Amino acid sequence: MSATVLANMKETFQNFSDAFQRLDADAILANWAEGCTHTIVPKSLGIPPKDITAFREAFAPGGMLATFKTLASKFQPRPILHIRITKSNA
Length: 90
What we know:
mainly alpha; globular
């Protein structure tokens, strides 16, 4: 993997991660390709995948993520996702 590809992957992931931490729907969706879906795991929770339209609706007033964003703003943020990208010498 070239250094440029790795740098682009890191930048894309960082933008996506930062957007999720802010719960900024526009910034999150800026990283989505057409046809992308959001899936909550484990699947045993029974929450269906959301396409771009359904994901945006979740951020609308009264939507699930809009409510979560309001509640989350009352707490001290903590990292919830840790990713390490390493370059293989193989």
